[in-house]
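User: As part of a screening pipeline, I want to sanity-check one entry by hand. Below is the sequence and the SMILES for pyridoxal-5'-phosphate. Please return the complex as structure tokens so I can compare it with the automated output.
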Amino acid sequence: MAPYAYFQKKFVPLEEAKVGVMTHAFNYGTGAFEGIRGNWNAEENLLYIFRAKEHFERLTRSCRVLKIDLPYTIDELVKITVDLMAMNGYTEDVYIRPLAYKSSEVVGVRLHDLESDLLIFTTPFGAYLDVAKGARCGTSSWRRVDDNCIPARAKVTGSYINSALAKTEAHDNGFDEAIVLTHDGHVSEGSGENVFMVEKGRLVTPPSHDNILVGITRDTVIELARNELGIETVERSIDRTELYIADEVLMTGTAAHVTPITEIDHRKIGSGTPGSLSTKLQKLYFDVVQGKNKKYIDWCIPITPSLVKV
Ligand SMILES: Cc1ncc(COP(=O)(O)O)c(C=O)c1O
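Assistant: Here is the complex for your manual check:
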């Protein structure tokens, strides 16, 4: 069954959701987007959309930064997503991509006097990094975009050139993922993930002013560590070599879930295998995102495949 997309205020077959070559966002990167996961729970035969509300709240904030008109409430955005997912009837893990963008077909770099539109498409999406084995990382020679260049706290399409440069450099150097530093040399984040280290039984993660995208998975892990394990997270700047000597390092993100980092710049982290706290957090996290931990069920919206309408 061909999936549907939401495009120009309607549900249309994905192949009909097309933009012209002059579209402003295509030429200048003037779009704000989200990545939301739908996680398949085979025992319950349900797909759970994870923290859709928080993702749309962040999309709304990104749109404010880019002066993109997004004339929908958070509830309306969630409802469109739920309807789309019911139509598409997936029985596997899915990625949901809302994209609010400058849709005018006009030449001229600016943010003002432009039309905007909202697009949402969905696609099956399995593992991004190897969550069981963990990932090997390299510190990038590229620096993270600064708040006064392209604000990292807004999830802006154009800024992903920064992530793409870092990811491909890491790949070409034989690593799974990049660790990107700020201009003053502190750890910022991965190409599409936030970073945590474990130090003396506590979690430490860079603060929002170190040019991170303030991740929803980051927030989820902070909450789960505090509520379920009694472990607090300290938000402070982290030096590159602090990661080398940390007890554990892990990355979090909608695509990457909770991925232990086993090696950085050819140095083993801990024993060089996934650490015990990372593994505990990962297990807690997967139970929560698949709707198995009913204490956190308010973060999940169930979609029944049998609701398929088309
Ligand atoms: C650059 C960057 N940092 C961090 C994250 C993690 O954010 P989240 O957990 O909300 O997916 C992402 C993923 O969206 C990202 O692209």
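Points to compare against the pipeline: The helical segments are 24-28, 52-66, 74-88, 160-172, 216-229, 240-245, 276-289. The pocket of pyridoxal-5'-phosphate is lined by residues 35, 163, 189, 192-194, 213, 215-218, 252-254 (CB under 6 Å).
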